[in-house]
Amino acid sequence: MSTATVTAPTAPVADGRIGLRGNLRHIGALVRRNLLWIRQDPESMFDAILFPIVFCLLFVFVFGGAISGTHNRHAYVNYVVPGLMAMMGMNIAQGVGTGFNEDFQKGVMDRFRSLPISRGSVLIAKIAVEIGRMLVATAVLLAVGFLLGLSVSNVPGLFAAIGLSMVFGFGVMWIFLTLGVVMKSAQAVQGMGFLVLMPLQFGSSIFAPTSTMPGWLQAFTDYNPLSTLADAARGLMNGHEPVAHDVLMTLGWSVVLTAVMAPIAIRKFTTKS
Amino acid sequence: MAADTLVGMTRIDNNPSEAAPDAAVTVRGLVKHYGETRALDGVDLDVREGTVLGVLGPNGAGKTTLVRCLSTLIAPDAGHATVAGYDVVRQPRQTRRVIGLTGQYASVDEKLSGFENLYMIGRLLDLPRKEARARADGLLERFSLTEAAKRPARTYSGGMRRRLDLAASMIGHPAVLYLDEPTTGLDPRTRNEVWTEVKRMVAEGATVLLTTQYMEEAEQLASELTVIDRGKVIAGGRIDELKARVGGRTLRIRPADPRELRPTATTLDEFGLTGPGHATVDTETGTVLVPILSDEQLTAVLGALTARGITLAAISTELPSLDEVFLSLTGHKASAPQDASPAPEEVAV
Questions:
Q1: Which of A121, A246, B320, B326 could form a disulfide with A26 if both were Cys (CB 3.0 to 4.6 A apart)?
Q2: What is the predicted ipTM?
Q3: Separation in Å, CA of A225 to nearest CA in chain B
Q4: pTM above threshold 0.90
């Protein structure tokens, strides 16, 4: 009881500035919150665990034979797994907006915003957790890939490819964070996300080489960051294709997305009432 | 209608720009627009340290906008406000250190347990791990939530959620606590539960700004009241003061002998002691009702009846309900349930 009185003296308030240690502490507390959510309903990890398994199996066995010939399924595994790595980031990033939107509906965000914490730490904690989920999804995908005969000839390249898809996923996440703040409902965020994601994912070199596509579509796929990311990941993992162009394109996209969307997301977030 | 035309009813009487010396919250000329609507239209008020100020108004009066301005969630368009000496606009970070907020909708994380909710907020308020844990446990016990501490908050009843919400807003020992319609949507029993907790906090010295649309709630919890309507303060003052000034009081007299009902009424009329109206006889309850304006009048009534040798069985004064107060101040009824029955005060038997 004595620990819970109302009128204990308020700690002196200096200028209220939050130092680096304070920020890290706050981010830590908010990350813990997100991890506890996952423990509360493990279903929320389905997208990170089941999705890579299902997609990998589906594409290798349904399309693999058609695309690379029945005897050449291994070649398709090597082709599609780096592509799916690129896709994974997008799919996980989509969830960030939905979760965020729910926070606003429930009023928890009001509580956070009336606390003496930097408003950015709520965003950063969310992003940290989502990056973690992307890593889980990538690990699952690679595990399934290896079971299906994925061969990686350049191990440092594999890690570079994982890193690159995280960087790109980080950039994409800002789009969905913005949607999460701006859109009225979680369903709207999901619908909008789907609308953006579908053409980007299928109009890319993720699932099939773009050489058979009509010229106008190739013009699109060549600049589609998912193509450049998928191609970069392939090159990095097999180690004998030039990757500089694709890597730079992907990094460029990530920087542009972050530079444009992060300030919007942060602004919308801090001013949302 | 300017507040000062309501003679003597505002406590911000002489110089509105001066903050009361013991004010924990000072609001001057606060304005907030939403498009064409003026949600706040020049609000002035003070919350004195260690008191509860009730901000009473119907839906859409601007109560929540006021609380959101004072908790730095939105910036006002004009005017200024200080909380514990900090300017809410220029010193938002400092302000956030000294306030506790319980919103209209319980703002707890439903997926987290009660303990984890409180622990998280403790950490966000920079308590060391051990202290955050101890504080969470202490508050859970205080709000009778220890048994439910490990369950996710979504399994809580409405009352438990509000209690958890109250606990969450108290973790940082706030200098000022905002309770924004703390019992809206709760059933009467649960409402009583919340009231009990708030009363306890007040007894321990908390400074509270409480918004409500329930007359009864303001009467139960607040010592002073600011009535707002369409973004403007229309009256303010101590609750009993406000009620007395607006509606006067009604004196209810029950003679020991029912046959003396009529003589009682005539006596009072003869003595000219019936204030603004007439004495009326209520045969059903065996009482005589007399509108009165002052304590002197009350005393004179007793004197007159004693002089006539009328023996009284009971005498009580009834304050007008806050509903009636609101009606006479705004000209329209507050959109609250009719739960504010007059509270009789026995003064003599």
A1: A121
A2: 0.79
A3: 36
A4: no
